[in-house]
């Protein structure tokens, strides 16, 4: 810590320098992130509520109202009108809270959780923290969890089954309807990790079909993770956890004697009211129509990218369900390195030997065209 403070101008100059080192979504070269440039209204709201703390909500009733309204909006999108929930630090905390609730509710010794092989690593972290044994269910040919594998792994120690609606690597959506049946038949808690897909799937054309159901309309689903700071176009941090039933909160309650409210249900104590304000501002500004337009944009470009990749002779790992494309060809790893050298921020997934691209709202048509041209040039030159 310096002894004497700097002038505001000098501090701002340093901040600007650091910010310039950060990559910018607007450049269109970030194709590996599940976050995006926040909506301008989210940024405004975040500034306006920068001092608000949802950890002490008696002091910030306006912010608390906005959080409740955001949760209500998410609940209505996910067909869970009577849900309760919170805005938390991200999908990791949301998944942790879900498994904590499930573990405390079941109260069995040597507890186990059935996780798809494709489950997000935040669930592995949660299992480590909560003393849960993660048993892994295998995937089918389209990288969705195999429901028969899940069924075989359920036993008297199982405290929860997890399904993913939009896996981080491929955007695959597990057969949540089948998992719901298994959960109901065995009296086991089902948590759906829709951190990414939860703000995409409700806006897709086939959203109303039974086949596509992944949310609270399925009776076995007890909780859902859905993150506004991914496809919700809001500022970081904004994860979301929704529970079907208020009674579940008893398994999460911690007494908080000196605050304006005597209990909390989240891990994080001091929580940014600005996250609630920012998500609220985006939901109000865009409405369902705005989200539908955003999702249509991303899915349209994903299709363009997928057909372009095929035309260049690459193989898709799976047909995209959401706005994620993964592909491979000759020398995929080398190709990924060369793409990075040329400034494309893409992920290489060693387990699947593929390059993964996430088509977020900051990606525009000309970025996709430029990417395909560049990819083709590298391919011609190197292979
Ligand atoms: C499916 C899924 N679950 C959970 C998470 C963790 O979310 P966060 O990084 O916000 O904690 C992610 C992050 O990408 C995700 O894709």
Structure description:
The protein has 383 residues and is an alpha/beta fold. 39% of the residues lie in helices and 15% in strands. Strands 1-7-6-5-4-2-3 form a 7-stranded mixed sheet, with helices on both faces. Strand 2, helix 5 and strand 3 form a beta-alpha-beta unit. The longest helix has 39 residues, at 273-311. The structure holds pyridoxal-5'-phosphate. Pyridoxal-5'-phosphate binds next to helix 4.
Kindly provide the radius of gyration, computed on alpha-carbon positions and rounded to a whole number of angstroms: 22 Å
**SSE sequence, one letter per element:** HHHEHEHEHEHEEEEEHEEHEEH
DSSP strand content: 5-15%
Give the integer mean of the pLDDT values. Answer: 97
Provide the CATH topology of the largest domain.
Aspartate Aminotransferase, domain 2
Regions with pLDDT < 50 over 5+ consecutive residues?
none
Could you say how many structural domains there are in total? 2
How much helical structure, as a percent, in the residues?
Answer: 25-40%
Q: Kindly report the name of the CATH homologous superfamily of the largest domain.
A: Type I PLP-dependent aspartate aminotransferase-like (Major domain)
CATH class of the largest domain: Alpha Beta
Given the structure, what is the number of helices? 10
Catalogue the ligands.
pyridoxal-5'-phosphate
Overall body shape = globular
Give, in spatial order, the strands making up the sheet with the most strands: 1-7-6-5-4-2-3
- Could you give the count of β-strands? 13
Main sheet overview: 7 strands, mixed
């Amino acid at each position: 810590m310096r002894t004497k403070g700097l002038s505001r101008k000098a501090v701002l100059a340093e901040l600007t320098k650091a910010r310039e080192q950060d990559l910018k979504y607007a450049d269109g070269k970030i194709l590996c992130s599940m976050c995006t440039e926040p909506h301008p209204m989210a940024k405004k709201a975040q500034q306006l509520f920068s001092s608000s703390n949802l950890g002490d909500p008696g002091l910030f009733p306006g912010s608390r109202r906005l959080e409740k309204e955001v949760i209500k909006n998410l609940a209505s999108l996910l067909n869970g009108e009577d849900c309760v929930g919170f805005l938390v630090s991200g999908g990791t905390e949301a998944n942790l809270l879900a498994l904590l609730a499930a573990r405390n509710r079941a109260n069995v010794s040597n507890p186990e959780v059935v996780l798809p092989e494709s489950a997000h690593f935040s669930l592995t972290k949660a299992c480590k923290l909560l003393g849960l044994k993660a048993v892994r269910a295998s995937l089918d040919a389209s990288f969705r969890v195999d429901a028969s594998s899940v069924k075989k792994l359920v036993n008297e120690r199982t405290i929860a089954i997890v399904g993913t609606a939009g896996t981080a690597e491929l955007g695959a959506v597990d057969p949540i309807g089948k998992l719901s049946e298994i959960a109901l038949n065995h009296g086991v808690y089902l948590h759906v990790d829709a951190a990414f897909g939860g703000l995409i799937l409700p806006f897709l054309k086939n959203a109303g079909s039974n086949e596509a159901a992944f949310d609270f309309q399925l009776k076995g689903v007890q909780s859902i993770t859905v993150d506004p700071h991914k496809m919700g176009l809001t500022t970081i941090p904004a994860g979301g956890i929704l529970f079907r039933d208020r009674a579940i909160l008893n398994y999460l309650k911690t007494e908080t004697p000196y605050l304006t409210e005597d209990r909390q249900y989240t891990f994080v104590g001091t929580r940014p009211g600005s996250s609630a304000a920012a998500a609220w501002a985006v939901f109000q500004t865009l409405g369902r129509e705005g989200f539908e337009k955003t999702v249509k944009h991303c899915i349209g470009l994903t299709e363009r990218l997928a057909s372009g990749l095929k035309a260049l002779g690459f193989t898709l790992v799976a047909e995209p369900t959401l706005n994620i494309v993964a592909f491979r060809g000759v020398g995929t790893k080398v190709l990924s390195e060369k793409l990075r050298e040329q400034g494309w921020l893409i992920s290489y997934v060693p387990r699947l030997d593929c390059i993964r691209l996430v088509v977020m709202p900051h990606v525009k048509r000309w970025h996709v065209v430029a990417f395909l041209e560049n990819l083709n040039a590298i391919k011609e030159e190197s292979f």
